[in-house]
Write a structure and sequence with these properties.
Strands 4-3-2-1-5 form a 5-stranded antiparallel β-sheet. Helices cover 26% and strands 27% of the residues. The chain has helices at 29-33, 58-61, 67-77, 84-91, and strands at residues 3-8, 11-19, 22-27, 51-53, 99-103. The radius of gyration is 14 Å and the shape is globular.
Length: 108
């Protein structure tokens, strides 16, 4: 199973992972207990229970580049355009905005 850590403004906010049923995102308990935690998206309000979806959550899918930038990434990393989670893991470490996606194997 592929998974990644989700950071909000360089603070560890939670984990997103691929499951047999689809995708799971869950906020980290320490992040929820921290002073003034912010949701990574208005569509994913703060809660302890995991979010479960049969498709990649639209917010995370929206972080993936489009157009010519996506084409360059697909050609360089040989990732299929329909592997949205693979694209998220590969391309969204330094995405525009407050949220970064760091594949679990890259975290030290």
């Amino acid at each position: 199973m592929r998974q990644a850590q989700v950071f909000y403004k360089n603070k560890f906010a939670g984990i997103i992972r691929e499951s047999d049923e689809g995708f799971v995102f869950q906020y980290d308990r320490e992040y929820l207990a921290s002073a003034l935690p912010k949701p990574v998206s208005l569509t994913l309000p703060l809660q302890q229970e995991p979010y479960i979806s049969s498709v990649l959550f639209p917010f995370f899918d929206g972080l993936i580049p489009e157009g010519w930038l996506l084409n360059i990434a697909v050609n360089n990393w040989k990732i299929k355009t329909n592997d949205r989670f693979g694209l998220l893991l590969t391309l969204c470490k330094d995405s525009i905005g407050c949220v970064s996606i760091i594949p679990k194997e890259m975290v030290s």
